């Protein structure tokens, strides 16, 4: 396979992230082994609500010229903990990015959040 140039995730359109790369399958599998159906559903529902609020807060902070690094850090942590790897990687890059870069990635943030949530909802705990 030829060497591919490294392109930071923030510069790749969200549609270029294949569905197979949205989630960290190992992290999701670990969660699915230990959580009940109710706990998994509650985790995904909480991420749905909090993820949207966090993305919206980061965009609002960038628009207002306020620091967004802590909000991006929060999004990174919650995303990676639940296994939303592509969103977590983007949030990591945006932690130290300028407000303009954050605003340029608004659509990508929402798209990765929506696609990650859809992928997470298809997964079910092992102890069903």
Features:
Four Helix Bundle (Hemerythrin (Met), subunit A), 128 residues, single chain, disordered N terminus, mainly alpha
Tally of strands: 0
- Cα distance spanning the termini: 40 Å
How much strand? under 5%
Low-confidence stretches at least 5 residues in length (pLDDT < 50)?
A: 1-13
CATH topology: Four Helix Bundle (Hemerythrin (Met), subunit A)
Portion in helices: 55-70%
User: What sort of overall outline do the alpha carbons produce when their principal axes are compared?
Assistant: elongated
How many domain modules? 1
Look at the structure and give the mean pLDDT: 88
Based on the structure given, which CATH architecture is correct? Answer: Up-down Bundle
Give an overview of the whole structure.
With 128 residues, this protein is an all-alpha fold. The chain has a single domain (21-121), classed as Up-down Bundle (Four Helix Bundle (Hemerythrin (Met), subunit A)). The chain is 66% helix and 0% strand. The protein has six helices and no strands. The chain has helices spanning 25-34, 37-64, 69-82, 85-95, 99-104, 106-121. It is elongated. It starts with 24 loop residues before the first helix and ends in a 7-residue tail after the last helix. The relative contact order is 0.21.
């Amino acid at each position: 396979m030829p060497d591919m140039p490294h392109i930071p995730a923030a510069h790749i359109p969200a549609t270029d992230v294949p569905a197979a790369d949205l989630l960290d399958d190992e992290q999701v599998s670990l969660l699915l082994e230990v959580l009940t159906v109710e706990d998994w559903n509650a985790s995904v529902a909480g991420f749905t609500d909090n993820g949207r609020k966090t993305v919206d807060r980061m965009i609002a902070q960038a628009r207002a010229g306020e620091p967004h690094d802590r909000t991006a850090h929060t999004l990174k942590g919650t995303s990676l903990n639940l296994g939303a790897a592509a969103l977590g990687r983007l949030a990591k890059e945006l932690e130290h990015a300028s407000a303009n870069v954050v605003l340029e990635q608004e659509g990508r943030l929402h798209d990765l959040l929506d696609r990650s949530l859809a992928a997470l909802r298809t997964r079910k705990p092992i102890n069903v």
